[in-house]
Amino acid sequence: MKIYLDGKFVEKKKAVVSVFDHGLLYGDGVFEGIRTYNKRVFRLKEHIDRLYRSADAIELNIPMTKSKLIGAVIKTLKINKLSDAYVRLVVTRGTGDLGLDPRKCVRATVFIIADKIKLYPEKYYEEGLEIVTAATRRNYPESLDPRIKSLNYLNNILGKLDAIKADTEEAIMLTHDGYVAECTGDNIFIVKNGKLMTPPVDIGALEGITRDAVIRLSRGMSIPFSERLLRMKDVYAADEVFLTGTAAEIIPVIKVDGHKINGGKPGRVALRLMEAFKKLTKVDGVKY
What pLDDT digit, counting tens, does each position of 221-246 carry? Predict the structure, then answer.
């Protein structure tokens, strides 16, 4: 495996960053997870745009133009001879000292990893996923905006640990005042009386690329859609629940905190959107 690291391709074992890199010391950096399907990078421009928005939000200068960064992603995929892959694109603040001061970091570190990924076993896409509500609450957006896809993922990891302790794969994270925000690594949608709903991003959810794709697909399929504040009682009473994410794609949920959804079977709307999403990945993206 070849890793792109600051303009060069190096072997996996030699792909290292300094112990003084502020991405390692403080989680000071941003990243994107990107999928490719049959040598087509899904929504690459949208991912790159979001990366730069995240970097701008933390005043991090990415030392490459968008076009050069896109080129680096493509080269990483080609050199590793990958057709269907997951790309992890990371930009850290760079090497500094043991203090917090970002001014001590002269230049950002950029690295790109391309590999295969399967977030959930195939059976969950066919039979549905069981999830729980995390005890860990979502960070206050005013303190650390979850719309910034930063390397500081401890809030999500603590929520993931809650899921693991409950012997499940995912957990719903609530805001400080009890509204549904998102899951630890995925956005969440519910369907009620034929209407598709998801929480607004400004309460503490990432503006997911797959989330956006599903919203666009639903409108094209004449499925009524709205962003709205959701409580757990809305999730429990939903006709359908499903999750979306770059790695997860679209995955149906059949049980939440022990409450069966749709009789414990994947719902019709989720299945329709899963099929439409598969078709979308075959045509939407940058070929390489």
Answer: 999 999 999 999 999 999 999 999 99
For CA atoms 218, 243, 121, 265, give the dihedral sign. negative
Q: What is the pTM for the complete model shown?
A: 0.95
Q: What does the pLDDT read at residue 145?
A: 87
Q: If you average pLDDT over residues 47-73, what whole number do you get?
A: 98
Mark out the alpha helices in the chain (DSSP H runs): 22-26, 44-57, 66-79, 122-127, 154-165, 209-220, 232-236, 268-281
Q: What is the Cα gyration radius of the chain?
A: 19
The 3-state DSSP class for residue 22 equals helix
- Active site annotation includes 149: yes
- Residue that is written with structure tokens 């049959």 in the block: 38
Q: In 10 A of CB 269, how many CB atoms?
A: 22
Name the DSSP class of 95. B
Give the Å distances, CA to CA, from 21 to 29, 144, 157, 160. 10, 21, 21, 26
- Cβ neighbours of residue 151 closer than 8 Å, sequence gap 6 or more: 23, 27, 28, 29, 30, 31, 90, 92
Of the listed 104, 116, 118, 149, which one is catalytic? 149
